[in-house]
Design brief:
The protein is mainly alpha-helical and 64 residues long. The protein has one domain (1-64). It has one helix at residues 40-63. The protein starts with 39 loop residues before the first helix and ends with a helix.
């Protein structure tokens, strides 16, 4: 996960894969840095953020 497609990340902060519109990834592998604790809450928060992005895109397509 990264803020720009600079070759060091697979997806943006909302889990959309760089260069592939509509493809989202999820899971603990999206967490950009090692964790020193149980990553469950972080993974859930990232999944919610990604799901909100997917829902917003679907609503835009429906309204278009």
């Amino acid at each position: 996960m990264g803020v720009r497609d600079d070759g060091t990340s697979v997806c943006d902060p909302t889990s959309q894969v760089w260069g592939v519109r509509g493809l989202f990834v999820a899971g603990n592998g999206v967490i950009p840095t090692p964790t020193a604790c149980n990553p469950t809450l972080t993974a859930v928060a990232l999944a919610v953020r990604g799901a909100r992005r997917v829902a917003a895109e679907l609503n835009q397509r429906k309204d278009a």
